């Protein structure tokens, strides 16, 4: 047995163990529980679990899918998550050998775990925890420190370098938030927001989109932060008409197509990256704000209202994670696959007269896996169609 085969087997075993920990994350993150303490216990009877109760897959089989102490059923998702992670880690190790991709192999395993945990939580709670997506985005950028040069290999996939990871994260957040702000505008029949967030929120994201198109992503972020500072000084949300920001962005693209201002692609890139950057700042702010005000919300004293949204903000941050790990090209491919998969499943459920209650996160995760495994050939095929 050669070294590469041993590494694949070891990766599979590592995946089983990580899958067991993933189940802890899936259960505890949405409930705001500590992921380390108390130690693993039965959620029904709270009895602490022994090491023999925690062997991935085999403990569930040996116990007949029931708790050893209270005989309550154990969700079959536990061994499924462990098996999926074990198989996925082995596939990643075989497809992207550690001897070639080094830290890139480990980074792709981390990405898969984030996608699987996020999808399971989204299916359960219709949410994507900030504790998973925001640190996940940072991890993607940090892995970029070890990924320089690998991403450029012809027909192969490695981690993007730091600059590419940052661009991918901002583009990822920007693409999804673009769908969100325009979709919300349509849902409101092009009326202005009734409850604009303060000091920073969707108004600043839309402003960053417009400013970034003309000034570039970092100046766009600066303009949006200046607007947030005005809100802080005024102690209220100073309204920025969406007819100016969202309408202005569309007009800007039209002008660019006619030869005025920066090129169309430069405008799109600048606007999307700026909107993505503001979105991540919003995500961090709202995360801190939520944690600070969680007790008030639990007591029912928080009566803050919001306007309808077309896309959950967790999806924005999950797209940032995917972009940070895979780069902006594969991120766009993941979004296309996600939209197509969502449309197909939606049509199937419509034909069966079932309501489609699956959020976009699992579709994004599926798209990311497709982009991870087959992104190179698919992108090469697309470039061939364009004659690039």
Automatic annotation (TrEMBL):
One of its GO terms (cellular component) is plasma membrane. Residues 109-230, 238-347 form the Prepilin type IV endopeptidase peptidase domain. It holds the Pfam family A24_N_bact. One of its GO terms (biological process) is signal peptide processing. It comes from the Bacteria. The chain crosses the membrane at residues 6-27, 78-97, 103-121, 133-153, 165-187, 207-234, 246-265, 272-290, 331-351, 363-382. It is found in: Cell membrane. GO terms for molecular function: aspartic-type endopeptidase activity. It is a multi-pass membrane protein. Keywords: Cell membrane, Membrane, Transmembrane, Transmembrane helix. InterPro entries: Prepilin_IV_endopep_pep (IPR000045), Prepilin_pept_A24_N (IPR010627), Prepilin_peptidase/N-MTase (IPR050882). Gene3D superfamilies: 1.20.120.1220. Residues 13-96 form the Prepilin peptidase A24 N-terminal domain. Belongs to the peptidase A24 family. This is Prepilin peptidase, type IV.
């Amino acid at each position: 047995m050669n070294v590469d085969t041993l590494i694949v087997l070891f990766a599979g075993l590592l995946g089983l163990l990580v899958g067991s920990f993933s189940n802890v994350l899936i259960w505890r993150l949405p409930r705001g529980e500590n992921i380390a303490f108390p130690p693993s216990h039965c959620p029904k009877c709270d009895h602490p679990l022994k090491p023999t109760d925690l062997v991935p897959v085999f403990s569930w089989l040996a116990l007949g899918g029931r708790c050893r102490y209270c005989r309550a059923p154990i969700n079959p998702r536990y061994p499924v998550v462990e098996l999926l992670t074990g198989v996925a880690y082995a596939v990643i190790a075989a497809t992207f050998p550690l001897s070639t991709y080094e830290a890139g192999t480990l980074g792709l395993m981390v990405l898969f775990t984030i996608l699987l945990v996020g999808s399971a939580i989204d299916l359960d709670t219709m949410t994507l925890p900030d504790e998973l997506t925001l640190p996940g985005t940072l991890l993607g950028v940090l892995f970029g420190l070890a990924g320089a040069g690998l991403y450029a290999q012809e027909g192969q996939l490695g981690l993007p370098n730091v600059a590419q990871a940052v661009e991918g994260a901002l583009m990822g957040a920007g693409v999804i938030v673009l769908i969100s702000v325009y979709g919300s505008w349509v849902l409101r029949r092009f009326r202005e927001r009734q409850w604009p967030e303060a000091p920073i929120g969707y108004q600043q994201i839309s402003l960053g989109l417009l400013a970034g198109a003309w000034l570039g992503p970092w100046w766009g972020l600066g303009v949006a932060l200046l607007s947030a500072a005005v809100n802080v000084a005024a102690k209220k949300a100073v309204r920025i008409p969406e007819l100016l920001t969202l309408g202005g962005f569309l007009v800007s693209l039209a002008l660019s197509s006619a030869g005025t201002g920066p090129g169309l692609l430069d405008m799109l890139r600048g606007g999307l990256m700026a909107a993505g950057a503001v979105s991540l700042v919003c995500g961090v702010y709202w995360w801190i704000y939520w944690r600070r005000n969680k007790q008030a919300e639990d007591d029912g004293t928080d009566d803050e209202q919001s306007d309808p949204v077309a896309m959950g903000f967790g999806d924005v941050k999950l797209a940032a994670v995917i972009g940070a790990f895979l780069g902006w090209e594969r991120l766009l491919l993941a979004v296309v696959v996600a939209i197509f998969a969502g449309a197909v499943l939606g049509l199937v459920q419509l034909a069966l007269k079932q309501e489609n209650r699956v959020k976009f996160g699992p579709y994004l995760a599926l798209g990311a896996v497709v982009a991870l495994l087959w992104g190179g050939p698919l992108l090469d095929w697309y470039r061939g169609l364009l004659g690039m």
